[in-house]
Amino acid sequence: MTPSSTAEFATIFEIMRMSTEDGPGIRTTVFFKGCSLHCAWCHNPESISPNPQLQWVGNRCIGCRTCLSVCRENALALTESGMEIDRTRCTGCGDCADACPGTALEIMGKTWDLDDLTAEVLKDQAYFETSKGGITVSGGEPALQSEFAGQFLKALRQRGIHTALDTCGCCRREALDQVLPYSALVLFDMKLMDPVLHKKFTGHDNRRILENLHYVADYMRSHVHPSEMWIRTPLIPRATATRENIGAIGQFIGAHLRNVVSRWELCAFNNLCRDKYLRLGQRWEFEKEELLTLDFVDEMADAAKSSGVDPDMVVPTGSTRLE
Amino acid sequence: MTAVAQNITPPLKMPAGLSPRMEWLREYYFNGAERAWNNESTSWTTGTPWDVQFNEMTFYIVPETYMLMQTLLSSYRQSARPVALPPDFWAKSLAERRAWFIKEVMVKYLPAEILPGDLIAGGRFNIQASMCLTETEQAEFNRLTAGKNGARSAMNWFHNHGYGNAGATCGHLVPGYDRVLSIGWKGIYEELENFYRDLSDADRKGPKGAQLRAMMTAATLPRDLAGKYAKICERLSAGEKNSAHTTERKAELAQMAQNLKKVPWNPPETFWEAVQALWLTHMLVMSDENYPGPGVSFGRIDQYLLPFWEHSIASGMSREFGKEILKCFWIHANTAYDAMIRNGNQGITSGFGQLITLSGLGKRHGTLLDMTNDLTFAILEVIDEMSPILEPKPNIRMHRDSPDTLLDKMTDMVASSQGAPFLINFDERSMAGMMREAAMAEIGHLINKDNVHDYCPVGCLENTMAGNDRSGTVDCNLNLLKAVELAITGGKDLLPFVDPMTLKKEKIRQDGPSTGDAAAFQRWDAFWSAYRQQTAYIIRKCVDLYETSESVRARFLPTPYLSCLVKGCAEKARDVTRGAAEISFVTLEAVTFATTVDSLLAIKYLVFDEKRCTMRQLRQALEDNWEGHNVLQALAKNKAPKYGRDDDAADEMAKQVMDLWTEETWKHCTLSTGRRFRPGMLSWNYWAGDGYIMAASADGRKKGQFLSNAICPSNGADINGPTANANSVGKALGGKDFENGDWETYLNSLPNGASHTMTFNPAIIKDPAHREKFKAFLKGYAVNGGTCLQVNILDPDMLKDAQKHPQDYRHLLVRITGYNAYFTSVGRELQDEVIARLSHEQF
Questions:
Q1: Are A101 and B4 a contacting pair at CB < 8 A?
Q2: ipTM given for this complex
Q3: pLDDT for B320-334, tens place per residue?
Q4: Chain A contact present for B443, CB below 8 A
Q5: Do B597 and B654 touch, CB atoms closer than 8 A?
Q6: Where a domain ends, among B262, B295, B328?
Q7: How close does chain A come to B839, measured CA to CA in Å?
Q8: I need a surface site. Which of A66, A93, A166, A221 has the fewest CB within 10 A?
């Protein structure tokens, strides 16, 4: 069974409560596993593969070797430098994680059914009401599990909960049709305007993304929901964070998304995910990259504000380098 | 978070906006032991060779002082100065002797001064006065306390064996200050006269007559002391030279003399008079009890002072001068600490808990409304401008409809003080607890839906009514975890007690009921049943221990002055120490709640549900303090369910533990004073200290590690964030019932309330948009959470500690747009960067 193809089950890698960064108010963000892009700078590398993945958190390991005895695939080896996971053998069955007394071994990606997930996120309904917050479906790319995501959002809308869809835009149009009617807010990523660079850094060009962006904007003009769209642009050194790129995104917004977009977030590069790559046994191109300076972020914000959009809607977010 | 330039606040909150007067007074106060003037305790004796001043029982709930008790007692005795007694002194009743003695010391012996610039009179009040006992009485008192089977040895046994502590402690109530402001001490005196007149001849000659006479003597103490201060003010005023520089001060002193001639004997009219009357009345409670301000709380000060505030503002008092009067009052409240001034910082940094209550619901024209007013804000400004300063401690009452203006001010103060300089009490849940109390004790005529909104917390967060309620809110502190230990062993200590001085090992005895060796239990139900019986046992044990000091206090330590301020005492012609308050409970504060719940969850998970070990193996691991059992310990810590994560199954266990111990608590009454026991969860600092006494616990905690604090989840267990933590707390208290709530839909098993501390990442208050989210969280807490919240803001030191002890901080989240991680699971280098960022307030 591939969880992504059903309306009853989804693969979720994290449920983040009291999230304050993914839309208005206090929110619970549900991170769907599996992404259609593969951005070189991705902050959540565990979100990319649609399959459950094993990771090892070294400082939780008590060295008891229980995992080695339960692994049926002989995929684990505890060496002096830590746990070595043979990812060609590991099937992500989770037996070792179940057995691990220290929870050093964890499976990223759990299967949730619709009722359980709905009940789980409704636990914070009181805070959604006091904060005008709600639920954000994020990822990965939630539209890859659109049937489930649509049903989930629908169930929440029926209870009067504010919903937000956080999407990279790289998905089938039918998938959007399943989630848009139940999303009050769309957080749409615009990373790079140059299709060649887009392909270089994310694995895909941006043709489909821009088409979908037009589609969502048209959809919003003719429907009550979604009623709001925020654009999010990651500021990545040597990739997205150039005056040309920011200016081009701003021109696109100004030209095509007037009266649709109410906020444009410039999300400063962040290096805290370095260890996530290590734990997944992956190399990361930005491993040695420092945070951006405040001056540089301000420069990008100026580029955005002078690109033809309402300057008030440009909001830089994230940390900057300590100076 | 926004990367645009932020307001960088200084790392330490500094006082601001103080006048030269207040700057001087504040700085003078913080000179501490260097000051020429102080309020250090002085000791006074009847001159008899058997005389004793220090009442050790008041410190039975302070384990740190156990080793010093005899020393303190003797030192006060050695340094006591004699007071000349009238010839008929020993012919009078104990209450009358004591009332006369305190008044004599305060009015005739204790020096009285006015500090430069001060607007409020009433300086020294910390005294250790003679118990005024006859030789026979004193011998009996000594036998019952320090004798072989006396209260002290019973208390020591209880504490040494990990049960907790208990003792009849003073303070911890809201005296009827509002009555002094409305009828003056004169009115109180006249009432006492009427009660006395109504006594039969026989009663007048008996203890009732003696009690009322003692109270009448005490009621004239504030009048005579105010008169003494009035003269000092007049003298000082006359002594000020007629220069431009001093004219203003001269007039202030003259006005102070006028105020003191009028109040607190007569009711005040102006704000200045009201604050003067309030201070003098309050400080004398501390004199009467010989103890500096332990939870002697002011109640709803922004409500009962409001008419005077409005009157004076309307008559031309500037708002700033009104605040200046309050700031002087603040300084006076802090001089309570002078009692321990030689302890250095410790004396100044620990909270005495003269609590003020601000805001909250109230009734106007029959409708329940928010009562925030201009005085509420003026007082918050005073706190903000004076901070950091400790007393009086503020507790802000919040509810679902608290005004935005109040929440904005609170949030600003949290942001500028790196944590809240106040506690936040939550009305709906708190009132539900008070309504439960009314129902359980059948006192609906005293607490009901028409007056429950007038509840106020004392000390920190202990909810009571005002002016007629003494509920012993810190007197009994019981480690619920002891019952888990006893259920495992069948009623015996797991480890023998070793005397730290002699290293003598006590033999393990059968202390609790013989519920059998838990190794023989086949099912969880059998274990739970043993736990039930042991819980009933430890509660009874605590109740019995309390009786040993409560009965002695009732016999020998009357407080006639305080009794004048507690409704029920004059009516019954009985002292407040004899249970005469209209509402007179003893609160049993449960300690170690989460450790207990998590231990039960671990036993159920490891032994019965998942069968990861046998009970015998688990017991062995606990006896070995988990040494050599690291796999089992890791399973207990990481795999067993925990309270505090909004996991319904785990929180159901919390609810069951709560129901069990609270229902058991309500069954008991003191024998000597007829006070019923009621449940609460405060747990002061015991969760730290008793962690070294209690054996290892099944939740994976080793002996020597901290226990859980009040109603908080165990350290590091709340891995699902603040909302989950708050929801669990609300559920443990009973959650909601849409048909049969205690108050509206709210349930609350703890009328006293429950202390809950949460630590937030500073990112939550970094900009206006996030502050709105923080405010919304507080409002959500009012819907789902507990009775009282202390908000702390994460500081770099905590993160440094997390680097050293990652196992205790698994819940710490680092969160930045689109990215989140547990602090302890990011690499060292990045952790250092997060710490540096926090230190520079760049989140």
A1: no
A2: 0.95
A3: 999 999 999 999 999
A4: no
A5: yes
A6: B295
A7: 11
A8: A221
